[in-house]
Automatic annotation (TrEMBL):
Pfam families: Cytochrom_B_C, Cytochrome_B. This is Cytochrome b. Heme b b566 binds at H96, H195. It is a multi-pass membrane protein. It comes from the Eukaryota. The chain crosses the membrane at residues 30-52, 80-99, 111-132, 139-160, 180-202, 223-243, 283-303, 323-341. It is found in: Mitochondrion inner membrane.
Length: 362
């Protein structure tokens, strides 16, 4: 092993030492494995996305998706791995954020801010990808969300037409959405490298919230085994979803060809955007709804600016209570976003919205 290491260039040796021999706090548990699992799923998504892009045609989107599912060898498996992988990606990233909030990891500002930028890129990528199958929910979801830009004074209408490439969501819209959906994952990969560099610069947090420099061990082999176990579990879940329950998180409306003359009874985005959609619907003013929609995600960036009396949340009951209320409001809003716009769901959304923002901003 030493002879092999001696043959490597100084740059390769430095990279090997920083990644494999990284000093890591001894107290971190499986909740700290989310980053490696997210990296694995991102690679899965890029690989399956490249295969799908070889057979996808924006000019004949719906038929090309059927062609991929029926005629291309391993096409339907690639499609379901890609769509269910996106849902699993969001499950893990929301869990990753929850762990970061509970353990006050946001105090490591560089890591937290780079992670938030990654979330914005990921959400944009996921939205663009949801439009590409050109089903009913894809078309109407794109129409509703892109129309929100019209709430911007003066620039709104021209901006919407520029996004559409015309006067409605159509083939030019699909062309540009497909290009961006293909390119953004590579931007996300670059952002993940920055995120990882920032993490290695300041070091990981730990469940106790104490100084992580007090007791550390090498990342390899102690934590590589933990990452490997987590990756095996997540891979098993992803393939089980793909082969046993491929339609579990899909909307039935999206299996019908997009029809501008037939509006679905209940328009809703994918489940991972439902919390923001519920907040948007709870505001009667269009511009106000757009502002609330943006704030629901961007407000995570404001948390490091706040001053906390205690350095960790381990023995801070009030902070734990606040986070519990935040998680409860998030789950409630996700459920309410899938409900029709009628009482009592609208009233519940108007109640949960202030709780969601109060727990973060106060």
């Amino acid at each position: 092993m030493k002879n092999q290491m001696s043959k490597l260039s100084p740059t390769t040796k430095m990279a090997s030492n920083s990644l494999v021999m990284l000093p890591t706090p001894t107290t971190i548990n499986y909740a700290w494995n989310m980053g490696s699992m997210l990296g694995m799923i991102m690679i899965f998504q890029i690989i399956t996305g490249i295969f799908l892009s070889m057979h996808y045609s924006p000019t004949n989107a719906f038929d090309s998706v059927i062609h991929i599912s029926r005629d291309v060898k391993m096409g339907i498996e690639s499609r379901f791995l890609h769509s269910n992988g996106a849902s699993l990606f969001f499950i893990l990233i929301y869990t990753h954020i929850a762990r970061g909030l509970l353990n006050m990891s946001f105090k490591k500002t560089e890591v937290w801010m780079s992670g938030n930028i990654m979330i914005l890129i990921l959400m944009g990528t996921a939205f663009l990808g949801y439009v590409l199958p050109w089903g009913q929910m894809s078309f109407w979801g794109a129409t509703v969300i892109t129309n929100l830009a019209s709430a911007i004074p003066i620039l709104g209408e021209p901006l919407v037409q520029w996004l559409w490439g015309g006067f409605s969501v159509s083939t030019p819209t699909l062309n540009r959405f497909f290009s961006l959906h293909f390119l953004l994952p590579f931007v996300l990969m670059g952002a993940s490298v920055v995120h990882l560099m920032a993490l290695h610069l300041v070091g990981s947090s730990n469940p106790m919230g104490t100084n992580s420099n007090q007791e550390k061990i090498k990342f390899s082999p102690f934590f590589i085994w933990k990452d490997a176990i987590s990756m095996i579990v997540v891979t098993t879940i992803m393939f089980t979803m793909t082969w046993k329950y491929p339609y579990m998180l899909m909307d039935p409306e999206n299996f019908s060809l997009a029809n501008p003359m037939n509006t679905p009874i209940h328009i809703q985005p994918e489940w991972y955007f439902l919390f923001a959609y519920a907040l948007l619907r709870s505001i009667p003013n269009k511009l106000g709804g757009v502002i609330v929609l943006i704030l629901s995600i961007v407000m995570l960036m404001t948390i490091p600016m706040k001053k906390f009396k205690m350095k960790n949340s381990k023995f801070n009951p009030s902070f734990k209570m606040k986070m519990s209320m935040f998680f409860f409001s998030f789950v409630s809003l996700t459920w309410l976003g899938a409900m029709p716009m009628e009482p009592p769901y609208m009233n519940m959304s108007k109640t949960m919205g202030p709780i969601y923002f109060a727990t973060m901003l106060i």
